[in-house]
């Protein structure tokens, strides 16, 4: 008789009320399981050390194994808070306040955050804010108070208030006089 694949059958629950014994993994098996998980997680998104530690600790009850996995992944060069900070700081369309906040949320150390923020070019940030404002200005003008909407939008994006007001004053100087006469009731 030829070998046929067996149909998989679900196990019937035990009738004696006893729970099935859980398979207890050896420390080596647990380490291997966590290491594979760490590589999958890092393959989807760059994670900070803090983020990966939190994820590993949710998957094991042995913090020493989680720390060993973290050390191994970092030793292999797959985990770098500096790299995460640089990629977050390089995002366009967000200001320095939002970058700093995001890095703090992700658990990046304050020294790394300060170093990356010092490397950020303020002229490039101003140009990004100006580009965003120019691109969205028509949308803001359709509202009752375009300056208020534009200010709120750029604040949510993390740009400093002084920069926002300077850009809004420049934009207001560009607006034709027709807008002023409409507001006066003509």
- The chain-level structural class is mainly alpha
User: In the residues, how many domains can be counted?
Assistant: 3
Spans of at least 5 consecutive residues with low confidence? 178-182
N-to-C CA distance? 97 Å
Spell out the helices and strands N to C: HHHHHHHHHH
What spatial form do the alpha-carbon principal axes imply? elongated
Number of strands: 0
Fraction in helix: 55-70%
Q: How would you sum up the major sheet?
A: none
Percent of residues in beta strands? Answer: under 5%
Total helical segments: 10
Mean pLDDT figure: 85
- Radius of gyration computed on alpha carbons: 27 Å
Keywords: Cytoplasm
Region (Disordered): 1-27
Function: Modulates RecA activity.
Family: Belongs to the RecX family.
Your description of this structure?
There is one protein chain. By secondary structure, the protein is mainly alpha-helical. The protein folds into three domains: 27-79, Arc Repressor Mutant, subunit A (Orthogonal Bundle); 82-119, no CATH class; 122-183, no CATH class. It is 66% helix and 0% strand. It has ten helices and no strands. It has helices at residues 27-44, 49-58, 63-75, 81-89, 96-105, 110-119, 122-141, 146-156, 161-174, 177-183. It is elongated, with a radius of gyration of 27 Å. Mean pLDDT is 85; it is low at 178-182. InterPro entries: Regulatory_RecX (IPR003783), WH-like_DNA-bd_sf (IPR036388). Belongs to the RecX family. Its main location: cytoplasm.
């Amino acid at each position: 008789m030829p070998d046929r694949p067996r149909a998989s059958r679900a196990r019937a629950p035990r009738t004696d009320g006893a729970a099935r014994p859980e398979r207890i993994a050896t420390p080596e098996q647990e380490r291997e399981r966590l290491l594979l998980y760490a590589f999958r997680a890092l393959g989807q998104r760059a994670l900070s050390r803090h983020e990966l530690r939190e994820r590993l600790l949710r998957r094991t009850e042995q913090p020493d194994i989680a720390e060993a996995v973290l050390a191994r992944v970092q030793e292999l060069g797959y985990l770098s808070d500096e790299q995460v900070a640089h990629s977050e700081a390089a995002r366009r369309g967000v200001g320095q306040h939002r970058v700093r906040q995001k890095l703090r949320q992700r658990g990046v150390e304050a020294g790394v955050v300060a170093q990356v923020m010092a490397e950020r070019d303020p002229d490039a940030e101003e140009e990004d804010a100006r580009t965003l404002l120019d691109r969205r200005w028509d949308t803001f003008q359709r509202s009752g108070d375009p300056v208020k909407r534009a200010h709120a939008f750029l604040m949510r994006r993390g740009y400093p208030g002084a920069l926002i007001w300077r850009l809004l004053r420049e934009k207001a100087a560009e607006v034709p006089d027709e807008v002023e006469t409409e507001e006066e009731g003509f």
